[in-house]
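For the sake of transparency, this paper describes our internal protein records without simplification. Such a record has a labelled line for the sequence and another for the backbone structure tokens. Nothing more is needed to write down the fold, since each code stands for a local backbone conformation. For reference, a complete record is included directly beneath this paragraph.
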Amino acid sequence: MPQALRRLARIARLALHFVRGLATVVFVFPSLDAAARHVRIRRWSRQLLDVLHVELRISGALAHPNVQIVANHVSWLDIFALHAVGPVRFIAKSEIARWPLIGRLVRGVGTLFVERARRRDTHRVNREVTDALACGDIVAVFPEGTVTDGSKVLPFKASLLQPVVDAGGMVQPVAIAYRLADGERARAAAYDDVHFLGSVWRIAGEVAMRVELAASSPIATTGRRRREVAREAERAIRTALALSAPDSAPDRCADPAGVSP
């Protein structure tokens, strides 16, 4: 199939899939318990990857309960790849909640939002995360605070690891990588230099990709500082991706902006 037709066909299917997801959140979720919602979220996320011909591969398994996942951040697809395995509750910037269609959808699956411009809002989110962990939910955060093209891992910001440290829970590093059929890095997946529709256009043009999730052993937080835990998680992800450490030192300041879509 010519690339232009492939793109148009996949984008049309993706749009319909998002509409179906929104309808499920609005009309079906209110009558379902948490377990039934999780089943639907996982199935819908796997179907989204299928629509875009993105194969999901995972090594290791997500731990639970009282676990916070930390992952490197490459693409908006990261969220759905993790949901397809989890599902998990994400911490995201508040702007996403106001996005048309997607905002309503991510609110409906339990995303926790933080106002990055308000430093005190991090404390509110931390309390919500602590409550979620206490209920047995898996919470996920991208501690780089932004996306990359997948060729590097930025120093982790530790502020959003405070709730799991307070709860004495576990932090599980998950490395995310996008590959083509020949094993080369899939550059089309990166969300670092393009708007959302441009990213969808780029991904839909690929014949096929795969997203690889490598779940490392959980890290205990009892009796440890969040910065120490963040550095260990960062090292685990670099090791899984076979990446060297950056020249700059990890960020040592609490940063409520350490959140990304």
Q: What stands out?
A: Residues 3-241 form a domain with the Glycerol-3-phosphate (1)-acyltransferase fold (CATH 3.40.1130).
